[in-house]
Amino acid sequence: MEVRTRVSRSRFFEKQLAKVPDFIRKKVVLWVFLVESNGVWEVMKTPGFHDEPLKGERKTQRSVRLNIAYRLIYRVVSDRVHIELLEVHKHDY
C-alpha cells in the first residue's frame, strides 16, 4: 500500500504566497503537485529544487530554492506523510 503525502498550508503561508510574483507562485504549485504525486523523498532528489536541510534554530526544517532569490521553507511531520509549508520568502544575500 502506497502512503500518500499530504501538504498543508498555514494562513501565514497563504498570505506570503499571495505577495510573491506569479512565476514563484507557479513553481510552489508545481513543487506541491510533485510532492503529492511522487512523495517528498523522490522530489528531494530533483537537482533543480536544491532541497537542503537548514541549520541552527531551523534544523527541523528544509529549504527548496524556487529561484536565486526565493526559498520555500517546509518541514516533514508525522513520519514522512505530512508536509507543512511554513513560508516562502525572498532570501537575503
Give an overview of the whole structure:
- The structure is a single chain.
- The chain is an alpha+beta fold and 93 residues long.
- The chain has one domain (6-90): 2-Layer Sandwich (YaeB-like fold), CATH 3.30.2310.
- The protein has 3 helices and 5 strands; from the N terminus they run E-H-H-H-E-E-E-E.
- It has a 5-stranded mixed sheet.
- A hairpin with a 4-residue loop joins strand 4 (70-77) and strand 5 (82-90).
- It is globular and about 30 Å long.
- The N and C termini lie far apart (44 Å).
- The model has no long low-confidence stretch (mean pLDDT 83).
Which terms summarize this structure?
5-stranded mixed β-sheet; 93 residues; alpha+beta; YaeB-like fold; single chain
What is the fold's blueprint, element by element?
Layout: E1 6-9, H1 11-19, H2 22-38, H3 40-44, E2 52-53, E3 62-65, E4 70-77, E5 82-90
Parallel strand pairs: 1-5
Antiparallel strand pairs: 2-3, 3-4, 4-5
* Element-level helix/strand string: EHHHEEEE
Gap from first CA to last CA: 44 Å
CATH topology: YaeB-like fold
- Uncertain residue segments: none
Describe the largest sheet. 5 strands, mixed
**CATH class (first level) name:** Alpha Beta
CATH architecture type: 2-Layer Sandwich
Domain module tally = 1
Which descriptor suits the 3D outline?
A: globular
